[in-house]
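pls read this protein:
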Amino acid sequence: MNPQVTPPPSTPVLQAPAIRIQQGGREVFHFSLRMTQFDDSLPEDVDPNVIGTHQRRFTPSHAKGIEGYLTDRDDWVFGPVCLSISPAFVEFVSYVGEEVDLPDVGLLSLKEGGRSALKIIDGQHRRKAIRQFLTAVLSPEEEERRARFCKSQMPVALYVEEDDTRIRQMFADMAKTKNIDAVTRARFDTRDPYNRAAEEIRLRSEWISPFVEMDRSTVARGSEKLISFNHLVLCLKTLEHGYGGRVSRAREKEAEIDLENIIERGIDWLDDFLPASRGEYLDLVSGEVDDDYLPKMRDKTFAYSATMLRILAGCHHSWGELNRGTSVDALAEFIQSMDFRTQRKTSLL
């Protein structure tokens, strides 16, 4: 009879110090990976033409935008990439002994076959962007940035879950709980030159500051505000590039160089053009209106519509494109003659 031979233990495909928590009835492990290790450890690229069983459709342009963010910035920030795996591939040894008692801190190991069993719940675009950034041909300055990037880490949240239906629900729940409203993004994202320009304009304009809504992404019908801060940003972009103009990364870089001129044009539009175009804005500039003036007037004139303000910014841009060097006074007079009343069949809209 041949003696029974015990096979040697398999070598883990990934090991990392981790913290174990319980969340929603499942185990979750939090750990970090060096950027090169992160790229090597995750599943291969997803098919951009297929919606996966547990993730949204992959959008190459979104990944490209993240790659550009890494190429341009040293002070980048990423939240944790969220992965899932079957419990069959997970082994966790707690740091528990005579001198330490940390049952939820220890060494996480993924068993053989675990790498192919990993699923990306949230992070496929970051994973693709990192792969592209690590393999791109870069300038010497960008090469130095990439070298620093490789020394940093990616936080990972690994959910022990194998049911695709539950994984899809996890992705949906994550999307629901991390939405950031437009006004908060506009106020906090100072990388966008138009956000910074809008704040300067709000402070420097002779009249607009009290009428800018800073807490909501839209102006409520009963509000005394005229325009939300994020819509003021949108009007500035329209003023520069037209109603249908898109602000690309190249245009953002141009705006950084031209920032003071953008601010001056925005102030001219608010303080000179709008009051000359409509009596409604002239009333606001005069400072003689009551607190309930705007709520009362919203049903009577389109002038207090956020869409109308953007249309007027687009008109100003188009006039400048078609009549370079010509004063916008004629445009202001034309707009002044329009019927902005909301209830007339012959009104502008």
